[in-house]
């Protein structure tokens, strides 16, 4: 039997990694802070090489069945009248029609179901201290008993606890890109069932996605970084959103009313995660914990590809963990680097800063869609 690996986080990267490491003969424990799978309906893509990985895991039929049926992104004015539109196909990657868009929760739970056949999953717990030793890492947990592992992998997202414990404070490796995003499930979609509808104010956007079963509204707005913003402070978040959108949403006003009463609002700064090295001894990072551009960087696709590459390298040289970690980083950084430069163009497309910028974007979309 191979070495003992602890993965912190049962999200997209952690679940993919657990599956593949188990297949390579490692004993895998996954520790997840949540008490069970979450309900987040945010739609995310499985594109490019991640489709091949998901196919090899046998989960593509499930993902396809749970996939959204959106085919157009429509930009409207405040009366809901169409200004321009583009076919979703234009955003397809190298896997073309095999690519799918599913809710983040469905993606994570489907990948985890595949992993759970071989890995041990511990819910409602998290790492509290990581002490490197000559042969691995001594780990203490908030709830479970302390244990020794040959390798610890932080797959615990943008605000990774593993990264904080092993590499240093979050502020050293993250940059608030001057934009915030809030998403929430809503009662009603806008437009046709296959349309994602987006309305722009200068520097801000509201999109309504039909989702699968439950539509999702997303507020994305440029805003100077707010130091010490408490992400559990829902009243403060509501106030920020109201200050940007209040009185300016026209027919989209009911979505702002929904924010004022919703309990299930996801809110975060659009954050870039960048580290000079992803590994420190026998502790390494994967997914958003290692590199992230929030909603702008094909994060779920990169999380799946990164986890697969890490498992592949560890599987290739089980006796040389350090060498495997170095090769994983070299290979996966090649995929990550160009995505991390993509924020500016994604921001220009989704949230132009001025009315002129919005008009130029709409014109460009009209020309492109021809
Ligand atoms: C609003 C929004 C829209 C997005 N849209 C897209 C998109 O269209 N396309 C796309 O490719 N990507 C998109 N993304 C990004 C994508 O969701 C992430 O990049 C992807 O989920 C990263 O996977 P991950 O496994 O690294 O992190 P996550 O999926 O975030 O998983 C991290 C896991 O770690 C757990 N965790 C956190 N802290 C701890 C702890 N201390 N101990 C134990 N467990 C912990 C969490 O509960 C979670 O289960 C979007 C993101 C957001 C927020």
UniProtKB/TrEMBL annotation:
It holds the Pfam family FAD_binding_3. It comes from the Bacteria. Residues 3-319 form the FAD-binding domain. SUPFAM superfamilies: FAD/NAD(P)-binding domain (SSF51905). This is FAD-binding domain-containing protein. GO terms for molecular function: FAD binding.
């Amino acid at each position: 039997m191979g070495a003992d690996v602890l993965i912190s986080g049962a999200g997209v990267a952690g679940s993919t990694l657990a599956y593949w490491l188990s297949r390579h003969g490692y004993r895998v424990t996954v520790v997840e802070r949540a008490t069970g799978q979450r309900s987040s309906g945010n739609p995310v893509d499985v594109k490019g090489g991640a489709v091949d990985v998901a196919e090899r895991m046998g989960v593509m039929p499930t993902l396809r069945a749970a996939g959204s049926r959106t085919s157009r992104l429509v930009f409207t004015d405040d009366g809901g009248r169409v200004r321009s539109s583009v076919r979703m196909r234009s955003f397809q990657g190298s896997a073309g029609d095999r690519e799918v868009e599913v809710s983040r929760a469905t993606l994570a739970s489907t990948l985890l179901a595949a992993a759970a056949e071989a890995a041990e999953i511990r819910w409602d717990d998290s790492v509290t201290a990581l002490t490197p030793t000559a042969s691995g890492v001594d780990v203490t947990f908030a709830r479970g008993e302390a244990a020794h592992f040959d390798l610890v992998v932080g797959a615990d997202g943008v605000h990774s606890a593993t990264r904080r414990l092993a590499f240093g404070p979050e502020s050293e490796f993250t940059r608030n890109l001057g934009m915030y995003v809030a998403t929430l499930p809503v009662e009603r979609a806008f437009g046709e069932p296959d349309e994602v509808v987006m309305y722009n104010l200068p520097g801000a956007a509201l999109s309504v996605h039909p989702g699968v079963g439950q539509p999702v509204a997303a507020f994305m707005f440029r805003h100077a970084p707010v130091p010490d913003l408490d992400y559990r402070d829902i009243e403060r978040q509501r106030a920020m959103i109201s200050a940007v959108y209040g009185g300016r949403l026209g027919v989209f006003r009911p979505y702002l009313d929904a924010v004022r009463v919703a309990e299930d609002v996801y809110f975060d700064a659009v954050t870039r995660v960048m580290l000079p090295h992803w590994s420190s001894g026998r502790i390494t990072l994967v997914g958003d914990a290692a590199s992230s551009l929030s909603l702008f960087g094909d994060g779920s696709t990169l999380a799946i590809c990164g986890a697969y590459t890490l498992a592949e390298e560890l599987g290739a040289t089980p006796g040389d963990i350090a060498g495997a970690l170095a090769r994983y980083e070299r290979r996966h950084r090649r995929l990550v680097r160009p995505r991390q430069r993509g924020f500016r163009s994604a921001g220009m497309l989704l949230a132009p800063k001025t009315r002129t910028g919005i008009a130029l974007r709409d014109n460009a979309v009209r020309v492109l869609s021809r």
